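Input (structure):
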C-alpha cells in the first residue's frame, strides 16, 4: 500500500508502537501500582495475538518500524512467544523489543528469543533483596537476576536495565547499580520518577533530576562523555572511559515531546497518542469486528494526523503547581489511563 509519510500536527512521524499485552502484573512497584485494588480490563475485550498482528501490519503501512511489547507484565500473557513470532515475520519491523520486570525470564527467555525477539529491557531499581521485596511489595530479586543471566546468553543485542531513581528510596544505589551493570555488560538507564497516571504517590521532592544523577556518577566514575543523540530515543547516553555506556531518561525535568514518535495500544485495543493522555480511541471494536488492514490503517492515520500531544511538557510548565496527575478513585473509572494498562 502506498500512503504518504504520515505526520501529526507538530510534524512528528509515527515510528514506534508500544503494545501493552496485558494490564495484569505480578509486582506492585510503588511508583506504578501503589494501590491495594484496581479496575482490570474485561477479559472478553483482550485482543488475541492475530488481532494485534493485523493492527501492527496496518501501522507499518503508515511508517511504524519499531514495536515494543510491554504491560502490565508482558510475560504473564500465555505463550507470548507466539505473538513475538508473528511480529518477527513482518518485514517492515526493524526493531522488536520487550520491556519486562524479569521475574519470568528464566521460564520464557528461550521461547521469546527463538521466536525472534531482538531487544530486551529489564526494569530493576535495586540490587538489595530486602529493598526489592519492599519496593515491589512481592518480588524475589534472585528470580530477576537468574532471568537476566539466562537472557544474556540468548539476547542478540546488549540488554538494557531501566532503573527509576528516586530520592530517599534507592538513590544510595546509583553508583553500585551502575558499577554492576557496567561489569555485567548491561546498559543501565536511570529514569526520572514520572507523574504519570497511576503514580498516585508521586511527589516532586522524590524526583532525582538528570543533572544530580550525572554529578553523582562523575564523582565516582569520572566525567561521563555524552554520546551522540539517537534520533527520537528517549535516553541521553553517556560513555565512561574503559567501562561502557549508560543512559538517563529525563522525562520529568527535560521532556522530549518535540521528537516523540510513539503511539501506545492497550491490551483491549485502545490507542493512546501520549503517555499522559486520559482519552484514547477505541480500535478494539473495529479490530474484533474484523476490519481490514486498509481500514485499520485509515483509522490510525486519522488519529495520528490530529495528534497534538505534548503531555510531559505541559506537566513541566505547571512548575510549583505540579502534583499527582489523577487520584486513585478517578483512575478506578479510567483504567486505560494507568501506566500499567497503557504500558511504559
Ligand atoms: N512490567 C514491565 C516492567 O516493569 O518492565 C513493563 C511495564 S512497566 C509500566 C514499563 C516501565 O515503566 C518500567 O521500566 C517502569 O519502571 C516504568 N515506570 C512505571 N511507572 C513509572 C513512573 N511513575 N516513573 C517512571 N517510570 C515508571
Ligand atoms: Fe512494576 Fe512494571 Fe508491574 Fe508497573 S507494570 S508494577 S513497573 S513491574
Ligand atoms: Fe510523547 Fe506524550 Fe511522552 Fe511527550 S509526554 S514524549 S508526547 S508520550
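Output (sequence):
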Amino acid at each position: 500500500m502506498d500512503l504518504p509519510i504520515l505526520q501529526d500536527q507538530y510534524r512528528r512521524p509515527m515510528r514506534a508502537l508500544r503494545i501493552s499485552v496485558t494490564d495484569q502484573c505480578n509486582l506492585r512497584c510503588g511508583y506504578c501500582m501503589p494501590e491495594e485494588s484496581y479496575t482490570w480490563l474485561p477479559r472478553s475485550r483482550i485482543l488475541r495475538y492475530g488481532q494485534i498482528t493485523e493492527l501492527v501490519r496496518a501501522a507499518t503501512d503508515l511508517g511504524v518500524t519499531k514495536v515494543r511489547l510491554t504491560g502490565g507484565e508482558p510475560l504473564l500473557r500465555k505463550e507470548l512467544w507466539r505473538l513475538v513470532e508473528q511480529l518477527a515475520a513482518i518485514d517492515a519491523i526493524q526493531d522488536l523489543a520487550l520491556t519486562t520486570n524479569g521475574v519470568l525470564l528464566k521460564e520464557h527467555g528461550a521461547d521469546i528469543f527463538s521466536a525472534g525477539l531482538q531487544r530486551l529491557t529489564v526494569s530493576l531499581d535495586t540490587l538489595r533483596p530486602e529493598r526489592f521485596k519492599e519496593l515491589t511489595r512481592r518480588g524475589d530479586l534472585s528470580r530477576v537476576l537468574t532471568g537476566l543471566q539466562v537472557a544474556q546468553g540468548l539476547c542478540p543485542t546488549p540488554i538494557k536495565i531501566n532503573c527509576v531513581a528516586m530520592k530517599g528510596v534507592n538513590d544510595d544505589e546509583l553508583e553500585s547499580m551502575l558499577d554492576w551493570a557496567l561489569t555485567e555488560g548491561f546498559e543501565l538507564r536511570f529514569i526520572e520518577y514520572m507523574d504519570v497516571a497511576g503514580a498516585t504517590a508521586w511527589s516532586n521532592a522524590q524526583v532525582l533530576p538528570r543533572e544530580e544523577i550525572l554529578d553523582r556518577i562523575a564523582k565516582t566514575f569520572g566525567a561521563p562523555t555524552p554520546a551522540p543523540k539517537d534520533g527520537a530515543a528517549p535516553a541521553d547516553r553517556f560513555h565512561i572511559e574503559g567501562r561502557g555506556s549508560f543512559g538517563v531518561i529525563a522525562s520529568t525535568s527535560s521532556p522530549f515531546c518535540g521528537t516523540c514518535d510513539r503511539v501506545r495500544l492497550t491490551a483491549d485495543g485502545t490507542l493512546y497518542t501520549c503517555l499522559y493522555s486520559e482519552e484514547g480511541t477505541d480500535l478494539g471494536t473495529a479490530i474484533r469486528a474484523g476490519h481490514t488492514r486498509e481500514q485499520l490503517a485509515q483509522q490510525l492515520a486519522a488519529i495520528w494526523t490530529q495528534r497534538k500531544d505534548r503531555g510531559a511538557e505541559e506537566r513541566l510548565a505547571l512548575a510549583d503547581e505540579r502534583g499527582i496527575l489523577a487520584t486513585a478513585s478517578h483512575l478506578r473509572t479510567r483504567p486505560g489511563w494507568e501506566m500499567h494498562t497503557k504500558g511504559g
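Notes: The radius of gyration is 19 Å. The mean pLDDT is 97.
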